[in-house]
Amino acid sequence: MLLKGDFLHNSFYTDGQNPVCALPSAIAAFDLFQNRISQRRPALFLDFDGTLTPIVPRPDMARLSWAARTVLAALAERCLVAIISGRDRLEVENLVGLPHLIYAGSHGFDVILPDGRVPEHSCLLNDQASLDRACSTLRQRLASIPGSLIERKRFTIAVHSRNVSPEHVETVKSIVRQVFEEEHPAVKLMRGKMVEELQPNMDWDKGKAVLWILETLNFNSREVIPIFFGDDVTDEHAFSRLRNHGIGVVVAGKTDQERLTCADFRVENSDEVMTVLRCLQECF
Asked: How many beta carbons lie within 10 A of that of residue 45, not counting itself?
């Protein structure tokens, strides 16, 4: 039986961060990684873009490899596997294409369990007026900036600047900031890798979505250990909230080695994520 607070972490904090380069590799130090799991059963939570798939110029170009899909399917027969993505829930569910997984979209705002249960805040997300206004304004103000891409998701708005020329990236950020200030306090601003995102202004994030899943499914922290894999700044919420309760694995390439993180282990890319998942598959 789950004891209330087994996994619950009251707030997102940023103390105790370390540079990525100071973390042990989840592959080279897999014995240490395995010791952290001990006799508990893993519950796996994974970001999609940049974690299960490489970063691509446009979101619609992402494809999950057959090998990755095979590993995820095998793991899902033995433990909980959940995809926690910034994409819309139905979109990431279609991209992964596997049953028996839990899918959470919009950075955890849109999450539903197989039996239909949803977080208490879900009914509040029906009010889309502020996001609709913000999206309309962004389309007008960013229309003249080549390469800018606006994604109106179900519960969020993502503005991508990956294909914007370097001299215009700060302009994109400034415009998003202006629109955020115009719609605040109804929305909040989240910044990731080459993306600015407007979200409902609620105390919710990927980390809280993970904790909600664990508690709602009555997972006991003495028997189950959550493991979160992610590459973006938005994944730090999950790394932080799982501190002392689980394991965080940050996906960070050579240019991100000085970045501060609350994760416990590191890998360099999505291929190394698959290597760790295969090792886990062989261990239990």
From this structure: 29
Strand pairing report for 224-230 and 41-46: parallel
Chain centroid offset of residue 120 CA:
20
| Whether residue 196 is found in the same domain as residue 259 | no
Interval 95-111 mean pLDDT: 95
Q: Indicate the helix (H) or strand (E) that contains 49.
A: none
* Helices (H), ranges, the chain: 30-37, 66-76, 89-96, 129-142, 166-183, 206-216, 236-241, 270-283
pLDDT band of 122, cuts 50, 70, 90? confident
Contact indicator for 212, 111 with CB cutoff of 8 Å:
yes
- pTM value is 0.91
Task: Please state the domain count of the chain.
Answer: 2
Which residues are tagged catalytic? 47
